[in-house]
Write a structure and sequence with these properties.
The protein is an alpha+beta fold and about 350 residues long. The chain is built from seven helices and 17 strands.
C-alpha cells in the first residue's frame, strides 16, 4: 500500500493554503510523521490548495465522526471497518484530533479519518465523485467532507490501523457520471489500457471484461471490430515481450511511476557489462505492432573493475528503480560465484535517461 500526501509547515492552521512537502508513504512510521502536520491528499498547482488548483491524487480521506447516532451501540469503530468495507480493501485509519472528545454539542465518541489509496486521479471532479460514491456505499462517513480540496488538521498520535489489502477502494465503488474517453483519444487510450490489463491479468476472461468496462467510457463508442483489433494486439504484444528470456516487469497496471522497482539475479556470460532493453508498458501504435516493430530502448551498463573470472562464473544482482518518469536508476551488485570466486563487494550505480 502506497499513498502520496502533501504537508504544511504548520499544525492547526485553518487559514493556511500552502502544502509544499511531498511525502510518499508505504508504512506506519511514515504515515505517523505525516499525520503530525496539517496535510492534504492531493497535489495542487503551485502547492496552493483550492478546487481550481487540483492536479492529481492517489489517496482520498473520509471522515467518520459517528454523528449518525447518539447510541454507543450504533457507533463504528476502526476495528469494524474490515468487516464493513472488506478485508481485501487497502486502507489506513488515523484518529482525529477530536477522537473521544465532545464536539459540536455531541458526547465523546470514536472520531477518525480513513485513508483509501486508489489509482491516480487527475481531475478534481472525478476525485470528488469517487468520495461521493464511497460515502453513498458506506453512509457512516461524513457526507459534508467529500470535496477534492479537503485538508486535515495535524494530530500527533502513536497508534494507527494499517490495513494492507489486495485491492483499492475504486475497485468496489463506481462513481456516477465518471470520465469519458473522447473521440480522438479513444484508440490510444484503449490500446494503453489493454496493454496494462493484459500484463496484470494475462489474456483471460477477467482481463477482457475489465477492458470492455473501460471501453464503455468511449464517447462515441468504438466499433466492435476496432475494439477486437486493439485487444488482440495487446495480447500478442504481451506474449511476445513476456516470452523473452530475462524479461521482468518494472511497471504494471495500477502502478504509478514512483512504485516502479524490480530486482533480478543472473549470471554474466562474458565481459564487464550487460545490456538493458526497455520496452514500454504497451505499444499504442497498432500499425507498428502489426509489422513486428516494437519500440525498445537499449542501454549499456558498464562494470569497470569487475574481477577477472571464467565465463559464466559471475552472478549479479540487478535492482532497478524509477527516480522519476524519465530516469531509471540501475544498481548492480557483484555476488561472485560461491566459495570458488567470492563476491568482490563491488557495487555499480547508473542512471538511464528514458527517451
Amino acid at each position: 500500500m502506497k499513498m502520496t500526501f502533501y504537508t504544511a509547515n504548520c499544525r492547526g492552521n485553518a487559514k493556511n493554503s500552502l502544502y509544499p512537502n511531498k511525502r510518499v508513504v508505504d508504512n506506519e512510521d511514515d504515515i505517523l510523521e505525516v499525520m503530525a502536520f496539517d496535510h492534504v491528499c492531493a497535489e495542487f498547482k503551485n502547492c496552493r490548495r483550492s478546487g481550481d488548483n487540483f492536479l492529481s491524487c492517489d489517496v482520498d480521506v473520509m471522515d467518520c465522526d459517528n454523528d449518525h447516532s447518539d447510541n454507543p451501540a450504533d457507533w463504528v469503530h476502526p476495528e469494524d471497518l474490515e468487516e464493513k468495507i472488506g478485508k481485501d480493501v487497502a486502507f489506513a485509519v488515523v484518529p482525529s484530533r477530536n477522537n473521544m472528545k465532545p464536539k459540536d454539542g455531541r458526547s465523546a465518541r470514536p472520531r477518525f479519518h480513513v485513508y483509501f489509496p486508489h489509482d491516480p486521479v487527475t481531475d478534481g471532479d472525478a476525485c470528488a465523485a469517487l468520495k461521493k460514491a464511497v460515502q453513498k456505499k458506506f453512509p457512516f462517513f461524513d457526507d459534508n467532507a467529500i470535496d477534492s480540496a479537503r485538508f486535515i488538521f495535524g494530530n500527533p498520535c502513536s497508534e494507527i490501523l494499517w490495513h494492507e489489502g489486495e485491492i483499492t477502494i475504486d475497485c468496489i465503488v463506481k462513481p456516477q457520471g465518471g470520465r469519458e474517453i473522447p473521440q480522438g483519444q479513444r484508440n490510444a487510450t484503449m490500446s494503453h489500457f489493454a496493454g496494462r490489463v493484459v500484463k496484470r491479468y494475462g489474456a483471460t476472461e477477467k482481463a477482457y471484461g475489465i477492458f470492455m468496462e473501460e471501453a464503455d467510457k468511449c464517447s462515441p463508442p468504438l466499433e466492435d471490430a476496432e475494439l477486437s483489433m486493439i485487444w488482440q494486439s495487446a495480447c500478442r504484444f504481451a506474449e511476445k515481450i513476456q516470452g523473452q528470456e530475462g524479461y521482468v516487469a518494472l511497471l504494471d497496471a495500477g502502478i504509478d511511476w514512483y512504485e516502479g522497482t524490480c530486482e533480478k539475479e543472473f549470471y554474466l556470460e562474458s565481459g564487464r557489462g550487460y545490456q538493458v532493453s526497455l520496452t514500454p508498458l504497451t505499444n499504442v501504435f497498432l500499425e507498428k505492432e502489426a509489422a513486428g516493430k516494437y519500440p525498445v530502448h537499449y542501454e549499456k551498463v558498464e562494470l569497470p573493475g569487475m574481477p577477472e573470472r571464467p565465463e559464466g562464473a559471475t552472478r549479479l544482482r540487478i535492482v532497478m528503480e524509477l527516480k522519476s518518469p524519465e530516469i531509471l536508476h540501475v544498481k548492480t551488485v557483484d555476488l561472485g560465484f560461491g566459495m570458488i570466486y567470492p563476491a568482490s563487494g563491488n557495487v555499480w550505480e547508473q542512471d538511464i535517461i528514458l527517451r
